Amino acid sequence: MSNSSASPCNSAAIVRPWPGLIEAYRDLLPVTEATPRITLLEGNTPLVPSRHIGPSLGGKVDLYFKFEGLNPTGSFKDRGMTMAVSKAVERGVQHTMCASTGNTSASAAAYSARAGIQAVVLIPEGKIAFGKLSQALIHGARTIQVEGNFDQCLAIVREITDRYPIELLNSLNPMRMEGQKTAAFEVCDQLGRPPDIHILPVGNAGNITATWWGYLQYRETGRIADLPRMIGFQAAGAAPLVHGAPVAQPETVATAIRIGDPARWNDAMTAMTDSGGLVDAVTDEEILQAYQLLATREGVFVEPASAAPVAGLLKLAAADYFRDGPQTVVCTVTGHGLKDPDVAVGLLQQPERIPPQTDALARLLQL
Length: 367
Ligand code: F0G
Hints:
Blueprint: H1 11-14, H2 21-24, E1 47-49, E2 61-67, H3 77-90, E3 95-99, H4 103-115, E4 118-124, H5 130-138, E5 142-146, H6 150-163, E6 167-168, H7 174-180, H8 182-191, E7 197-201, H9 206-220, E8 229-235, H10 240-243, H11 265-274, E9 278-282, H12 284-298, H13 304-318, E10 327-333, H14 341-347, H15 358-364
Parallel strand pairs: 2-10, 3-4, 3-6, 4-5, 7-8, 7-10, 8-9
Antiparallel strand pairs: 1-2
Helix pairs in contact: 3-4, 3-7, 4-5, 7-9, 8-9, 9-11, 12-13
The protein binds ligand F0G.
C-alpha cells in the first residue's frame, strides 16, 4: 500500500530551498532576528563553467561566469537591495531614492514594492535600456527622467537624501555593499576555494569594492586562505579610473556603466591595488564582440556592460597576461541580456520570412 502522507516530490526533503542571501549568510551580515527579511530569494546564482572562451585560450585559463543576470530583477543589484531595504524597513523608513543607469532603479523599485514603501528613481533621459525602464515603472517607482547624465542624477539624489528622511539606495549606502559581498562568498562556496583572478565591469565602482570586501571577510573568518587579484574593466568612453580623472561626458553602448565620476572611486582603486590586480578599458567594439561570443558560443545572454569583463579577459590573454600557467578566473556577468534587447536586435539581421507552407520552409533551408 502506498503511504498517502508521503510527498510525491521527495527531493524537497533532500534539497533545502534557498532562503535568500540574508538568511543564508546571516552570520556574516549585520542583521539580527529583529531585522525584517525583505527578500525575493535573490543570490545563489550559478557559476557557469566556460565551454568555449576559456578553452580557446590554450589551457591557460579555467574560466567561470558568475551569472548575476539570474537574480530576481535580472542583475546583481538585488544582493545589495535586499540588505539596504531590509535595514531601512527595520528603522521605519517609508521612502527610498536612487540615481541609476537602469538596474539599480529596477531593483530599488522591486524591493521597495515588496516592502510596501515608496521608491523615487532618477534616470538619465533616453540613456537607460528599455527593459530596465519597464521594471521601474511596473513596480510603481516614481520614475523621473533627468536632462543630464548619471553623475548629475546622483549629485541631486545625494543632496535630497541628506536633507530629507529618504533612504539613499545607491552603493554609497553601506548596506548595499554588505549584500553585494555575498557574491564573493558564493564564488568561494561554489568553487571550494577562491579564484586566482576575479574580473568585473566597473561603473559606479561599488560592486568590485563589495566583492573584494567579501573575499577579505571570508579570509578573516578563516573560510579561505588566499585572495584573488581583482581586475576591473571600464568602457573606453567612460573610463575615469583608467585616466585618473573624471570624464565629463561619458559615452558607451554599455549604458549600465556610462558613468564619469564613480562614487566608490577610492575604494575600488584600493581593491585593485591591494589585491595586485589592475584597471583597464575596453572599446565598445570589443564589448560587442564579447557580447556576441558569450551568446553564440556559451549560450549565455548578458547585457553589454556585463560583456566588458569578458572583453577584458580576451584583451589580457592577447597581451600574454596569463603566461605564468593555469589560472582560475571568474568573470561576473552582471545583468541579463533581456534587459537591453534593442542592442541584440540592432546588431543582427532581421529574421527570415516565409508564407505558412511546409514546402516554403524546406526550400528556404535547401532540404
Ligand atoms: N554591470 C551592470 C549590468 C550594471 O548595472 C552596473 C551598474 C555595473 C555593471 C557596474 O557596477 O556601478 O557597482 O561598478 N549599474 C548602476 C545602476 C550604476 O544604476 O544600475 P558598479
